[in-house]
Fold this protein.
Amino acid sequence: MIPDQKPIWDRKHVLGEHENIRHSPSHFAPIARKYFPKGATIVELGCGVGRESEYFAKHGFHVLASDISSKAIELDKRHFAGLNIKFSVLDMREPLPFVDSKLDVVYCNLSLHYFDDKTTERIFGEIWRALKPGGILAFACKSIHDFHYGNGREVEKNVFVSKSGHARHLFSLD
């Protein structure tokens, strides 16, 4: 069983564990951006410290950024006030609060690998439901070739929980 990840991420954000990357987008963001329609609305699931949200907003996109951590969202609202970003707390384990077939882009950088297979499949189904025809899902997740593979207790095939309770679902191409 995977423990609730919200308290873990609230603690990480309160302690500032990811502050050093707040204004540095990942390598994935500029790669993904090339595929997004000009001026599109991007829904980011799992925005963390808001680094990708800031990057996309500064490149002319409308951003709806969400995270399970209310602490992250509080900090993001302060850091990125004035940018074209709307922040909200959202638990991907619940149905996504978006109308069917309306979203231009859903972006998830390292936020879809905290769940068991059944939950992950449900989340992808919700994303598919909410994307408009021709909409774009851009996501990156951890691989079975990641150095974290095998770290912790395996609770399901390729799903590991560390001693601190941090879950990682590592994926193969299959």
Notes: The CA atoms of residues 99 and 121 lie 19 Å apart. The beta strands are 41-45, 62-67, 85-89, 103-109, 131-140, 153-156, 159-161, 167-169. The chain has five helices and eight strands.
